[in-house]
Amino acid sequence: MLLWGKMTDAYNENTMGYGNTSSIDRAFYKNRAGWNQPHLVTYAESHDEERLMYKNVTFGNTSNTAHDVRSVAIAISRTEAIQPFLLLIPGLK
User: Fold this and answer.
1) Which of 39, 52, 56, 90 has its CA 20 to 30 Å from the CA of residue 74?
2) Rounded to the nearest 5 degrees, what angle is found at the Cα of 15, between the Cα atoms of 27 and 41?
3) How many domains does one find in the chain?
4) Taking CA 52 as the corner, what is the angle to CA 49 and CA 53, rounded to the nearest 5 degrees?
5) Is 82 exposed, middle or buried (0-12, 13-18, 19+ CB in 10 A)?
6) 17 in a domain, yes or no?
7) For residues 55 and 69, is the Cβ–Cβ distance under 8 A?
8) Phi, then psi, of 41 in degrees rounded to 5
């Protein structure tokens, strides 16, 4: 039996630049209480790629003017960075 591990909110908090609510540790089954088998399918987003970008440019962190996430170029680079993080976590995608 496979169970789904939706991590969209945590990954999007990462892309928006908010570290205090962006933990993706639950993407790995061993980091979930009571999970003993690798029956977790994790994904950063499904069909909402454009929604991640919308949130980045609308609600992204602007506290660092040199790295303003609402800038389209920076928002794109942060969205692209989701993939390596997702792929480095063991398990099904």
Assistant:
1) 90
2) 20
3) 1
4) 95
5) buried
6) yes
7) no
8) -105, 120
Q: How far apart are CA 58 and CA 5, in angstroms?
A: 26
Question: Does any domain span residue 39?
Answer: yes
The reply to whether 62 falls in a domain is yes
Q: Which domain holds residue 68?
A: 3-88
Give me the average pLDDT of each 10-residue run along the chain (93 residues): 65 88 87 86 73 92 92 93 87 76
Can you say whether the dihedral through the CA atoms of 11, 12, 13, 14 is positive or negative? positive
Which are the contacts of 78, defined by CB distance < 8 A and separation ≥ 6?
A: 14, 15, 16, 17, 56, 60, 69
Greatest Cα pair distance in the chain: 47
Using DSSP's 3-state secondary structure scheme, residue 57 falls into helix
